[in-house]
Design a protein that fits this description.
Its main location: membrane. It is found in: Cell membrane; Nucleus outer membrane. It holds the Pfam family Mab-21_C. Keywords: Cell membrane, Coiled coil, Glycoprotein, Membrane, Nucleus, Signal, Transmembrane, Transmembrane helix. It is a single chain. A hairpin with a 6-residue loop joins strand 8 and strand 9. Strands 1, 2, 3, 4, 5, 6, 7, 8, 9 and 10 form a 10-stranded mixed beta sheet that branches. The chain has a domain of 380 residues: Beta Polymerase, domain 2 (2-Layer Sandwich), CATH 3.30.460. Helices cover 50% and strands 11% of the residues. With 549 residues, the protein is α+β, with helices and mostly antiparallel strands. The chain has 16 helices and 10 strands.
Length: 549
Amino acid sequence: MPVGIFRVCLVVITAIVNHPLLFPKENGTVPENAEEIIQKMKEREESLRLEKLRLEQEIAHQEAMQKTLEKAAEVVEESKEEKVRWDMWTALSMVIFLLIELWRQDFQEGIWQDTGGEEDDMAVLGKAFKGVAFPDKAVLASFYEKRILGTTGDMARMREMVEGFADDLLEALRSVCNRDADMEVEDCMGVGSMYENWRVRKPFVCDLIVPFAPPEPYCFRSQTWCSGDSFPPDEQGYGTIKVCRADEDVTGCICDKTKLGEDMLCLLHSQANTTRPSSEMEDLLCFKNTQYLDADQVMKWFQIAVTKAWNRISHKYEFDLSFSLLDSPGALKIKFRSGKSIAFNLTPVVQYENSDVYFISHFPRSGLAADLPSSTHWFLTFAVYERRFIQLVSKMLPANACHVSCLQILSFLHGKQCSLTGPSGLTNYHLKTVMLHLLQARPSQDWAPEKLEARLQDMLKFLEKCLHEKKLYHFFIGNRRVPAELGFPIIFQRAEPLNLFRPFVLHRDVYRKTVDTFHEMLRNMSALINEYTVHIPLAHTNGIHKESL
């Protein structure tokens, strides 16, 4: 029985397994489906191959474009580097050309040809002093006492006499002038070496400046080279003076600076105020058809006024008065019946704003200085501040300080040398400027009287350095260390320094003559001083040296 049941179950299971609905014959359609799949695979393979070719072409194109861009960038970079190299070569060539041009100017034919074997005059600082026998303290002291110190009393008497006469002359000048039309003349002031007590060479000449102002309702409005507008180098140190009505605002309106059209009017100034008859401005000593004060017209007016004033008071004096120099309109000379004479300069000036800086009509200049750009350009003088600075510093120096003595000795030596070999480009004003710079640079104790020899050497070496560099700056212009006690105008302290030796750059022959004269003075210094020195025994000299040690 169990065996039969097992057999029945086996038959049923076998039937179920072999039933076609449960396990169909898969290999019955294999040949047809395989061909279709193979065809699709071939098509897919072809499309992939085409896509691969397309991608390879794109990649190759991009690589070519990248290489092209890189080459272009390299070309641009190379061009930039080449341009930079070209610019550098251009700049270097210009620098070399300028250096060659400067060398050519310094050593051009006919100027710097010296005899062979002479040492270069443009040597380094101090070389010119090699082999120079410098006078010792005893010789300098004797020279100063005999030749220079005795002139102080003569200067004081002459100043007193000239000032008294000048005051009387100006008072008479005011009386002969028309107060409603002529310039108003103020009191005179003494400036320069005679009033700073360092003039040594005769004839003594007093320098007096006379400020003047226009009649009412006019006033002066000045403009300097450092007031903001650009001035060419040859006009530095100068300024212009405009004659205006007191109620005229020249700074707030541009009608005087810009040409308005014929159909345009200034709403601030009427035509009557802006246009004045030419004769009226000429009566105010202006340049023709302008409002600018003419220095030549001022000197002509001043000479005529002085002549009239002298005619009025000449009966009071037992001497004659005349103009002594044609090229210096303010130069006057008093001639006594005994044959003696006294010379002095009386020069009209215009005050700069409310300061003691003055525009001077004619300034004593050396032969190397260029002429004024025009007669409407006025030179500025700082002589009043220079005198005040020396007085201020002298109060802080030791008793009997040697600063004035150094300047007097140097001025005497240079003047004596010029009388032997002819004039040079150096002036006494240059020598005073050297002293002013050293007064500010060195401490006060260095100017003790026993240090006269050392300070004189300092001045000579400083002057040699300035000549070597062709640079000697004006003491006040561009100097921001000017003592506040002087009340010096700030506009000039902030200005660019003014080189007093600039004419040497333009006048090579004068520069060469000046350098030769300076070095000749150094070589002749002992002889020039010994000529005016009392003989000092050797023992006395040695004793002085031992005391100083």
